[in-house]
Amino acid sequence: MLSPQTCDSNNFCKRNRGTVSSYSVDPKTLTVQGAELHAVVTNTAAKQNFNFTLRAYGPVIRLIVDELKSEDQVPRYQVPDILEPSLEQQATPWQAPQATAKSWSGKVGDVTVQVTFANFQVEVLVGKTTVLLFNSRSLFTMEHPRKKQVGVFTVWFGCGWTYSRCRKQVQ
């Protein structure tokens, strides 16, 4: 019988336990092109930069945070819009975008989006009601690409064994 997973047995949990998000948006990098808002989000603690994209598809808002493109790095897998195959055709330009020193806001129909730069946060309102508050408690974190350790097998399974040990145990 398998023992229940604890934070001590999960590397992702151990690395991120007790961390507080230190991400902020660089307002100088903010650009709006039609239905897309682009900016650079910086993890000030790790000194890592990420691309931040906010796309408007009518009442649907898509938020993407991804690594900056680099030649020596394999890009992350991007999930296609399979639930809404016609989503790309519904791209709607931002209306009345406004930027201040602390935030950016834009509208698409009756949906308003506000991005706070320091302590990176995204708030989505329909009318005057908040329907989504991304990173409201500053718990957002991104796994940064790390160099693969040569000679160390890093794939773990639910049984708590490495692949080779799991295979021997199952046989």
Overall description:
By secondary structure, this protein is mostly beta strands. It is 8% helix and 39% strand. The chain is built from 2 helices and 9 strands, in the order αβββββββββα. It has a 5-stranded antiparallel β-sheet with strand order 5-6-7-8-9, with no helix packed on it. It has a 4-stranded antiparallel β-sheet with strand order 1-2-3-4, with no helix packed on it.
Record keyword descriptors for this entry.
single chain, 171 residues, mainly beta, five-stranded antiparallel beta sheet, 2 helices, 9 strands, disordered C terminus
The ordered string of helix (H) and strand (E) elements is HEEEEEEEEEH
Largest sheet descriptor: 5 strands, antiparallel
Strand composition percent: 35-45%
Principal-axes geometry comes out as globular
* Fraction of helical residues: under 10%
- Gyration radius (Cα, Å) is 20 Å
Query: What is the number of helical segments per DSSP (H or I, 4+ residues)?
Result: 2
* Average predicted local confidence, pLDDT: 80
Kindly report how far apart the N and C termini lie.
16 Å
Fold blueprint:
Elements: H1 11-16, E1 23-33, E2 36-43, E3 48-57, E4 60-67, E5 95-99, E6 103-108, E7 111-116, E8 121-126, E9 129-134, H2 163-170
Antiparallel strand pairs: 1-2, 2-3, 3-4, 5-6, 6-7, 7-8, 8-9
